[in-house]
């Protein structure tokens, strides 16, 4: 995932709701309980972990039992230390006290709580990148480093890449944010080259290995609230000679693991991406900015996100003043101006009839008069002057230029091009004369998009005339 282009905008839950989610996650709530339990007799080792003798008492405080009780208690303590809920007072003596951030969980703002949760998340992500060491212990209980094939940086990059792809799938407008992603597809997204047709057996084996790693990692990341995870069916990992305990459905993809980012996880991933230098917008970022920032900022947004952002922007403004600000920001002859005017037109469609005076004020404006007439007509206004032929052609070029910028060579644009050429006799002979910076580019695009070779040739000839007229 490149950090050179902005990521899709995400829709975040309110911070107060996210903070409540953070406080209710199993791992942070356990860490807070241990921080409140710790006292003068609590002792830690040189790394800040609970000494072995006190781990059973910590597990009991947390109500943990079973084979994983000690490991879960130790992890919760490690999170408490790393998140500032516990502070080591004397490293030599191993004494501790409550950390300053513990009080934030009950008396801090939602942002304070989320900052503590983000610190806890970083601890868990670091732990998730460490391989299982249980099978690598020698006779003395020490890790056999020679048997450890582990590159910490590569492992962290792998997990970051997987989570980055999961973020993109969550943020994408074509995929419901609460729809889980099959684990095989997620693993393949970081293993299989994009230009590979049929994956080789070697690549498929890599995907399978990655799935097993991710299964362990997502099991670790669920208690901190980053993901909701349905693990890989244990029957799939049983030895081939073993008889399954119950009949299994080989066509059920969910048996291979399903994962999605939680609303809290989406917030956490965006925070990490911003910290790493990515441009990761969220709907609402532009609500307190000017109309110029709104129109430019939503230029690359998908339609649903652009509308949601615009609705939040309009909620903070009086309709007539908002309309005037939008129209003023839509002016310009730069390459981004047509798309700004399209976004302006879409924004104005959300404004009520009280904005009518602002639209009437620009009826004679060369750049805005056309869209003003469209708005007034759609809203049933009386006495809307008919546009001149020159204005109609100018608006046509501006509209196609905006669609090109927004969608590229889409099927919708292809249909628009065909309709324009069919409905207007002598269209190309007239339109090349339009005094618009994008005239030649639009005509060249029409030449590429129109399926009729004769019409496409006319468009290219008109584009040549337009470019010659513009001195290019």
Protein topology:
Layout: H1 15-24, H2 26-37, H3 55-61, H4 69-82, E1 86-90, E2 95-98, H5 104-107, H6 110-128, H7 152-171, E3 181-182, H8 183-191, H9 201-221, E4 227-230, E5 258-261, H10 263-275, H11 291-297, H12 303-315, H13 319-330, H14 337-348, H15 356-360, H16 369-378, H17 389-407, H18 411-423, H19 427-431, H20 439-449, H21 453-469
Antiparallel strand pairs: 1-2, 3-5, 4-5
Helix pairs in contact: 1-6, 2-4, 3-4, 4-6, 6-9, 7-8, 7-10, 8-9, 13-14, 14-17, 17-20, 20-21
Summarize the structure.
This protein is mainly α. The chain contains 21 helices and 5 strands. A hairpin with a 4-residue loop joins strand 1 (86-90) and strand 2.
């Amino acid at each position: 995932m490149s950090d050179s282009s902005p990521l899709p905008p995400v829709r975040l839950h309110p911070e107060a709701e996210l903070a409540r989610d953070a406080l209710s996650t199993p791992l942070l709530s356990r860490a807070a309980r241990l921080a409140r339990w710790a006292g003068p007799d609590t002792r830690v080792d040189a790394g800040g972990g609970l000494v072995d003798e006190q781990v059973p008492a910590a597990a009991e405080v947390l109500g943990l039992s079973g084979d994983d009780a000690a490991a879960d208690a130790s992890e919760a303590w490690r999170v408490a230390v790393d998140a500032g809920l516990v502070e080591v007072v004397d490293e030599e003596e191993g004494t501790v006290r409550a950390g300053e951030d513990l009080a934030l969980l009950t008396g801090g703002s939602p942002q304070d709580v989320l900052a503590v949760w983000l610190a806890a998340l970083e601890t868990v992500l670091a732990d998730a990148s460490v391989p299982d060491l249980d099978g690598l212990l020698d006779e003395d209980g020490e890790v056999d480093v020679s048997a450890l094939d582990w590159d910490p940086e590569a492992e962290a990059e792998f997990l970051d890449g997987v989570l980055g792809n999961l973020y993109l799938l969550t943020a994408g407008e074509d995929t419901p944010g609460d729809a889980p992603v099959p684990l095989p597809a997620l693993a393949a997204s970081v293993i299989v080259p994009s230009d590979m047709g049929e994956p080789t057996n070697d690549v498929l084996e890599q995907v399978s290995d990655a799935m097993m790693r991710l299964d362990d990692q997502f099991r670790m990341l669920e208690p901190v609230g980053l993901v909701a995870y349905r693990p890989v069916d244990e029957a799939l990992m049983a030895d081939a000679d073993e008889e399954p305990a119950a009949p299994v459905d080989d066509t059920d993809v969910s048996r291979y693991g399903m994962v999605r980012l939680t609303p809290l996880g989406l917030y956490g991933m965006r925070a990490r991406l911003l910290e790493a230098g990515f441009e990761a917008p969220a709907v609402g970022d532009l609500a307190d900015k000017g109309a110029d920032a709104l129109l430019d900022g939503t230029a690359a947004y998908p339609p649903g996100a652009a509308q949601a952002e615009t609705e939040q922007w309009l909620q903070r403004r009086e309709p007539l003043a908002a309309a005037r600000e939008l129209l003023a920001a839509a002016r310009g002859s730069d390459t981004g101006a047509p798309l700004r005017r399209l976004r302006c037109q879409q924004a104005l469609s959300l404004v009520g009839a009280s904005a009518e005076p602002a639209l009437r004020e620009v009826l004679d404006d060369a750049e805005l008069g056309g869209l003003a007439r469209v708005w007034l007509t759609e809203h049933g206004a009386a006495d809307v002057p008919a546009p001149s032929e020159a204005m109609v052609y100018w608006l046509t070029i501006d509209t196609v230029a905006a669609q090109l910028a927004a969608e590229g060579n889409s099927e919708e644009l292809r249909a628009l091009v065909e309709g324009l050429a069919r409905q207007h006799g002598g269209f190309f002979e007239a339109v090349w004369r339009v005094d618009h910076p994008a005239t030649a580019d639009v005509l060249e695009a029409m030449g590429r998009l129109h399926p009729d070779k004769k019409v496409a040739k006319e468009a290219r000839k008109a584009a040549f005339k337009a470019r010659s007229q513009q001195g290019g």
